[in-house]
Amino acid sequence: MTTMTIAKAINEGLRATLSNNPKSLLMGEDIGPLGGVYRVTDGLIGEFGADRVVDTPLAESGIIGTAIGLALRGYLPVAEIQFDGFVFPGFNQITTQLAKMHSRSNGNLTVPVVIRIPYGGGIGSIEHHSESPEALFAHTPGLRIITPSNPHDAYWMIQQAVNCQDPVIFFEPKRRYWLKGEVDTESAGPAEDPFKAQVVREGTDATVVVYGPLVPVALAAANAAAEDGRSIEVIDLRSISPIDFDAIEASVKKTGRLIVAHEAPTFGGIGGEIAARISERAFHSLEAPVIRVGGFHMPYPVAKVEEDYLPDIDRILEALDRAFAY
Amino acid sequence: MGATHLPSTEFDGTELDDQLEAQAEAALGVPSTEMVQLLGPDGTLGTDSVFSEYAERLDAEKLRGFYADMAAIRRFDQEATALQRQGQLALWVPLTGQEAAQIGSGRASQPQDYIFPTYREHGVALTRNVDLAELLKQFRGVSNGGWNPKDTNFHLYTLVLAAQTPHAVGYAMGIQRDQRLAAAKGVGSDQGADGPAEPKAAVMVYFGDGASSEGDVHESMVFASSYDAPVVFFCQNNHWAISVPTAVQTRIPLSNRAKGYGFPGIRVDGNDVVAVHAVTEWALEHARQGNGPVLIEAFTYRVGAHTTADDPTKYRESSEEALWREKDPLDRLEKYLRAEGMADEAFFAQVAADGDELAAYIRKSTYESDAPDIRTAFANTYVEAHPLVAEELAWFEEYSAGFAGGDEGEGAGR
């Protein structure tokens, strides 16, 4: 076991990937000598060279599009999009090309591209640097979307993403880049399926489903609720597409109440999808409607008011109060 | 890491510009704005200081082959249009007028090269040995690409304009890395230790004058230039992006744009199969040898409609079409072949007979081309197992089974 931050864990995961697979390569803006704006690729160009750690022109569609071409030639590209809000120039390539290539080629072609995107708010940044666009991609068949919430997952899930034959969008919770935790880098291989959720705190009275940056928030809310005598189960979703509905269903059948929280706007979001599915699967186990906690239906607000926008401990506790009121 | 990797951030722009311009012009021997033409509309062969030597390599058999290919794909085009009129195809995208641009360039490619078409490159598909019946499946609505690109190195058609251009550049970046990985292992160069070396490869990507306005073309050219990627950008300027003339897309010859990216741009008479072949051979070899990208603008004309759903009488004069018919790519090669005694009546009769045979084959295979099972779509959405797809497929099976037994199955779905 080694203690490291999420940023360092991704860095180490990428280093392991580059070492283990000569066809893997990283590409993106400022990922070379600078090591990325968050230093996630720090030092890698020195170890692996400019052919494998590619500083690209400043063009997101070009980054994703050339990554697709490299994948068609047998490479395993890991493309970095510098910030969540800047993925949209590459949106066409991701949704009309990357997501559909395997299907439209009748299974003849595979495009195992990984797209790393730092996402989410809470860092006091300027416009377009704090967004959570995961639902836009989750709505697109052909893509897989995963997001780690801790260093151990970060280290392993980035490697699993590269090894996956489908395109994977790897959302990195940027405000947790400096969160430290233990990483088992020694084990022969990861035991955890990256597309399965994990119960990170067991409880009996209500389930809170979260992912990425909100996992520590939900755990803190569960601790606070415990003081009121409520036993809250917290599930770290880990995978946004596919979603591990079996894990949520099993938990809800035990607890009878479900809260889903994410930073993205609730309307049309992942929470709505979970609410619908769980209503179908566990209707008779629910003691209360599934309640969503999330961003408001507005463009991500200016930094000085983002605390009012972002789900926090109190917002989750308030939702729990409503669930328990039924 | 660090210093040796860092590029200089300062250069004399004027000097660089002059240098690149000089390089391009020295390599080509012609100013890039002039149009390369060898076989004129009257069927006589002209000369070009750079490209005549490529034309001289073409013997009578090659030239007859070009004619046969162009005639075959024109006949195919007519047959596909007829099939659309009969309701056998949902849509057809005619290429008539662009045969020389496609056959000339496609025949200049080598098997190890990889081709990214847009959606009108039926002639290029023919040169890459794609089964033309497979090609119609997309337009019949039974497949999004009936052929396996790995068999022919001819990628699927891409309908989102210019989206394939960065794929081509990425693929070319992969070829560069393959060569460096092979070199590091001591193979893949001219004399490999582990047997014969892989032939050097390049990528060619097709797009049109309309698509040239898409941002993906710009980004692709920036990437290709920055990394000296072995890619040939082949732009068929057919003068009309559906109803919008080229003048709305560009105020300068499209080939001139290459200069802005720092690589050669050549405008070629796109109705002259000899010149197109020569220019493309030169460009692909330039790319294969590691000299970076080339832009070719094939100056041609879409004689027919954009698609079978289009009506050119709404936006252009028939006199313009007539003018271009006089520059027909097949007519001029036929004149040349006859004048030089390279082809006789029997040859042209055989070409016509082959066309009839192709048309019959296309009709038959289209009539017989049935809808796939939607289960294949479930199977091909992801490579690896996916629980949501599995759940929805299971529901679909249960639902479908409800209809299998007639009345007893009614209401079995949910």
What descriptors fit this protein?
heterodimer; A: 326 residues; alpha/beta; Rossmann fold; 2 domains; seven-stranded mixed β-sheet; five-stranded mixed β-sheet; 36% helix; B: 414 residues; six-stranded parallel β-sheet; 17 helices; 8 strands; globular; disordered N terminus; disordered C terminus
Please report the number of helical segments of chain B: 17
Q: CATH homologous superfamily name of the largest domain in chain A?
A: Thiamin diphosphate (ThDP)-binding fold, Pyr/PP domains
Measured by DSSP, the beta-strand proportion of chain A falls in: 15-25%
Uncertain ranges of chain B:
1-13, 28-32, 408-414
Mind telling me the CATH class of the largest domain in chain B?
Answer: Alpha Beta
Structural features, described:
- The complex is a heterodimer of chains A (326) and B (414).
- Chain A folds into 2 domains: 2-183, Thiamin diphosphate (ThDP)-binding fold, Pyr/PP domains (Rossmann fold), CATH 3.40.50; 198-325, Rossmann fold.
- In chain A, 36% of the residues lie in helices and 20% in strands.
- Chain A has helices at residues 6-20, 44-48, 60-72, 91-98, 101-104, 134-138, 151-163, 215-227, 245-255, 270-281, 306-309, 313-325; strands spanning 2-5, 24-28, 53-55, 76-80, 114-119, 144-146, 168-173, 180-183, 198-201, 206-210, 232-236, 239-241, 258-265, 291-295.
- A 7-stranded mixed beta sheet of chain A has the order 3-2-4-5-7-6-12, sandwiched between helices. In chain A, strands 9-11-10-13-14 form a 5-stranded mixed beta sheet, sandwiched between helices.
- In chain A, strand 2, helix 2 (44-48) and strand 3 (53-55) form a beta-alpha-beta unit.
- In chain A, helix 1 packs parallel to helix 7 (151-163), helix 3 packs parallel to helix 4 (91-98) and helix 9 packs across helix 10.
- Chain B has 2 domains: 15-368, 3-Layer(aba) Sandwich (Rossmann fold); 374-409.
- Chain B is built from 17 helices and 8 strands.
- Chain B has helices spanning 13-28, 52-56, 60-85, 99-108, 122-127, 132-140, 149-152, 164-185, 215-227, 246-249, 257-261, 273-288, 318-325, 329-339, 345-368, 374-380, 387-404, and strands at residues 35-36, 114-116, 203-208, 231-237, 240-241, 244-245, 265-269, 294-299.
- In chain B, a hairpin with a 2-residue loop joins strand 5 (240-241) and strand 6.
- The model of chain B is unreliable at 1-13, 28-32 and 408-414 (pLDDT under 50).
- Chains A and B meet through helix 2, helix 3, helix 4 and helix 5 of A and helix 8, helix 9 and helix 16 of B.
- Chain A: GO terms for molecular function: branched-chain 2-oxo acid dehydrogenase activity; magnesium ion binding.
- Chain A: This is 3-methyl-2-oxobutanoate dehydrogenase (2-methylpropanoyl-transferring).
- Chain A: Its EC number is 1.2.4.4.
